[in-house]
Design a protein that fits this description.
Helix content is 0%, strand content 54%. The chain has no helices and eleven strands. Strands 2, 4, 5, 6, 9, 10 and 11 form a seven-stranded mixed sheet that branches. Strands 1-3-8-7 form a four-stranded antiparallel sheet, with no helix packed on it.
Length: 114
């Protein structure tokens, strides 16, 4: 399983970005999908997750601003990020659980700065 994430970049505070992550090499249905982030000097943390049935879970810092979704036909997970803040600056990683194994993408940089 390979994960290709894209959509990161530089955005001003209050702006929006949409991340996407497509999984390839998949034959069976993907279980959970999610986004994590790691800021410099900090541990990697969960941002949002979505189950195969569409149930979602958000970190407190993401609630009300970020929306996770998935397209099972495309094996793709999305993260719509609105009202971005400088503290959202981090490398964002997608994660999928497939056949009871976790897989990680390489990460995409999100920088929120004026």
């Amino acid at each position: 399983v390979q994960l290709q994430a894209c959509g990161g970049g530089l955005v001003q505070p209050g702006g929006s970005l949409r991340l996407s992550c497509a999984a390839s090499g998949v034959i069976f249905s993907i279980d959970g999908m999610g986004w994590y982030r790691q800021a410099p000097g900090k541990q990697r943390e969960l941002v949002a997750a979505i189950t195969s049935g569409g149930n979602t879970n958000y970190a407190g810092s993401a609630k009300g601003r970020f929306t996770i979704s998935r397209d099972n036909a495309k094996n793709t997970v999305y993260l719509q990020m609105n009202s971005l803040k400088p503290e959202d600056t981090a490398v964002y990683y997608c994660n999928v659980r497939y056949r009871e194994m976790p897989y990680w993408g390489k990460g995409t940089q999100v920088t929120v700065s004026s």
